[in-house]
Amino acid sequence: MAKSLTAQDTRTLRPEERSIFSYMWKYKTLYILALPGVLYFILFKYVPLFGSVIAFQDYNIFKGMWDSEWVGLEHFRTMFEHYDFMRILGNTLLIGLYDTLLAFPAPIILALLLNELRLIFYKRVLQTVVYMPHFLSWVVVSGVAVGILSPSTGVVNTFLGWFGIDPIYFLGEESYIRSILITSGIWRDSGYGTIIYLAALAGINPDLYEAAEVDGAGRWKQTLSITLPALLPTIMILFLLHIGKFMDFGFERVIVFLNPLNTENGEILDTYIYKAGLLQQQYSYTTAMGLFKSVVGLMLVYIGNLISKKTTGESLY
């Protein structure tokens, strides 16, 4: 019965629709397995997007989204005219830029170094060691950083004391906060990216290296001519995903390091949205700010995808 119905349905479809339907029916088991993940993104990622409409309203929690007064672009104007907005935006852009320049290449370099290890046991041990911090919460990471950078008992200040340098309260000086944020992020998350790149490296045909050796190419030449070009598709896809989060550095990874002494250089849009939106209940204003972040991220992904497609042939879509 099911087969006859399917055949009858497919006869009423256009050829291209019939091919799509046949393809989906052929791999129906995979689509069923993917269904929970698809539903998760629909319910918790896409449906909440409709709430962005309050960015154009003077939202009142008692009136709700449907009865709140419409104010158009008023909150966006207020955002750009805010006396502190340019400082916070500048912090977000600078930290995002440092993260792209320093943190993004870190797992690539680490994967290339681990790939050169010939003893499988040590290679697996090191993979595990560099990957383990990824499972730590930012609260734990900040606790580790505070302990290491402590002006009285920290390892760093103890080392500086050997050279006669007075203790430095790193988390109490605004000039160090950006470096601490980027360094802690590299330590925590580089292992995750390294695993991805190592998986891509495992797919490279060993015959290519053997042929390069016969031609007299050393390890450095092989890396430049074989390894990096083979990794390029993976690098470009992860880079495009990375720049999509350029302005979404993460609330939790910053707030745990912030204090009144380093807020000047450490506060970003995410932490400001938390303070203004949740603590001060400026829901519409901070939704407008979040929408601004999303639009910028979308533009960066689109431009980056376009450039990547024209230069390397790799793209997200």
UniProtKB/TrEMBL annotation:
UniProt entry tagged with the keyword Cell membrane: yes
Domain named ABC transmembrane type-1: residues: 89-304
Transmembrane domains' residue ranges: 30-56, 93-114, 135-165, 185-204, 224-243, 283-303
Gene Ontology cellular-component annotations: plasma membrane
Example of a GO biological process term: transmembrane transport
Any Pfam family the entry gives: BPD_transp_1
UniProt-annotated location(s): Cell membrane
Domain of life assignment: Bacteria
Annotated membrane topology: Multi-pass membrane protein
InterPro entries with a match to the protein in the record: MetI-like (IPR000515), MetI-like_sf (IPR035906), UgpAE/MalFG_permease (IPR050809)
Keywords assigned by UniProt, alphabetized: Cell membrane, Membrane, Transmembrane, Transmembrane helix, Transport
PANTHER family found in the cross-reference section: BLL4140 PROTEIN
Family: Belongs to the binding-protein-dependent transport system permease family.
Name this polypeptide is given: Binding-protein-dependent transport systems inner membrane component
The organism's taxonomic lineage, starting at the top: Bacteria, Bacillati, Bacillota, Bacilli, Bacillales
